Amino acid sequence: xxxxxxxxxxxxxVRRPGPRCIAIVGxxxxxxxxxxxxxxxxxxxxxxxxxxxxxxxIGDAGAEARAHQMSTDPNVASVxxxxxxxxxxxxxxxxxxxxEMRHVLPVVDAAVVVCEADDxxxxxxxxxxxxxxxxxxxxFLFLNKIDTATRRVRETLAILQRASRTPLLxxxxxxxxxxIAVGFIDLALExxxxxxxxxxxxxVPLAAxxxxxxxxxxxxxxxxxxxxxDALMEELLGDMEPPQDRIFDDLARELQDRHVVPVLIGSxxxxxxxxxxxxxxxxxxxxxxxxxxxxxxxxxxxxLGQVMKTWHSGHGGKLSLARVLRGRLAEGDVVxxxxxxxxxxxxxxxxxxxxxxxxPAVEEGDVAALARLEGVSxxxxxxxxxxxxAQVSAVAPPEAVHALALAVRDRKDDVRLAAALAKLAExxxxxxxxxxxxxxxMRLSGQGEMHLRVTLERLxxxxxxxxxxxxxxVGYRETIRGKASARGRHRKQSGGHGQYGDVVLEVxxxxxxxxxxxxxxxxxxxxxxxxxxxxxAGIRDYCRNGPLGFPLVDLEVTLTDGSYHSVDSSDMAxxxxxxxxxxxxxxxxxxxxxxxILTVEVVIPSEAMSRASAIVSGRRGQIxxxxxxxxxxxxxxxxxxxxxxxxxxxxxxxxxxxxGVGSFSAxxxxxxxxxxxxxxxxxxAHALAQAR
Length: 692
Description:
single chain, alpha+beta, 8-stranded antiparallel β-sheet, 16 helices, elongated
């Protein structure tokens, strides 16, 4: 970890130069977008804060976000506060869109984690905090909805601490009147504030009956700071009052060193606690210099930008949201990406939600959307000139947990569908599109039901492509249980050269995973050498679609005998003869259906273990064992084998049983025999589908 720099407002009095970039993160419906509205209102960026419920917020301006009242993309807004510039990026909180924050985090200076006093959301908070911990981001925690809280802050903090591996440091305590939080006491300033609706809080004298609570809470805060400051510890032991500047220096240093997570309280909807949060960010959050040190970018050199998000707008073309980590990027600059793509910046746009303001350039530390960087992807770095930019950070896409097979309603939309999906997948790195020739199927995979639903809504609303969706087909196979032999003779005479091919084949089963093995045991030239390859080709042709309707696997086919005609034999004739022999022999060898079995690892909060086990067992899962999730206190994992046919909708059930946080990973393990009524039903359904 890089050595900390002096914070703004430190004893040397030097303010931190340059704009700062702050991520607003937190669980779904914790109030992140509402907090952004309050920040904009407090800083003069809005005359009046909008509301997610009424659909007039600066953030969540997209049709899908408005319809579902949830963030589906990062929302960006820039403001001035007390002469300093801040770029706030409000990131989605739903676990299905959590990946959107992963490309944002590496280049932000700090994060504000918005949460509330709700036990049920603690696991979701842990997911968010774990992302910040892994990315090594300094972070504040904003305990929102304090106006509706019914639990003491100390009790809430104990619950929230279980979600954080870094100690939480309480900076403020509420002032209660008749069970309602009407203000707060700032423990560093030792001042009391009374909330005012959509305005900065008013300083009031500290009431005598609050002095005891304040003194106890302040001492607890100082004790935690003293864990990392020996001089402060000595002062506390000697009952000496440390200077206020010293306390603020410690607060800034402990935040930047990731020793503590400061906790502030307020109500985003009422605008309470927002000014103190902004002041804490201004005085204590690190700046661009520290961020460059954290991600290994040197201060000297040509300009360097990092792309955090890509959008394709209907009228303005492609936009790439980027932060300039060094130097300056201007409209018209030719840049080269870390992927080696050379392109030109067609425009620079400052964003405030959906609003766009054109700028001639984007300065060091600033965030802007760069127009028409064709060939540049989310996560790429860009630098001016023809030399490839150094890669700043690389974020792997998350593993898909839900998939749908798509088909256009109007066949003339086939080409438009492919082009639209390519753009959507470029915007959203967690989407993947695959084509499966075996099923004639286009498959869309992502992070859950809502994630794919939003994608289909964008397909229809933005690109005018209507599709039908269904669960993906399962990769069933078939094999044989026994042995059989058959002769296949293809003979046709219709004037001129005829067609003649004759083979005798034996089929036998092989162990699972062996595939198709061809053995040539011809002696005496019964089948000439030049036709042997055609016999094998005919065998493999037949194995694409066995008697049950699925590809044949795990069998050995031996060519034992045959005959030929010196004039009428041909490659095509022997290929057809092999198909005929296979069609005779395989059914005699007792065909059996095989279904793919996956190794599945389910991760859930410990309290959801019994519900998750029932879900796995109810889907024909064979539970192999239980264990605690490595590195995750209060989480467990289930290891199981589960048929691929039972995977559809698994993530929906798991998340329903775990307040939205359960997940799984799956890998193919083996093929297993399936017989009886379940197999008959699958074969009948497949035959019916093929007949349509």
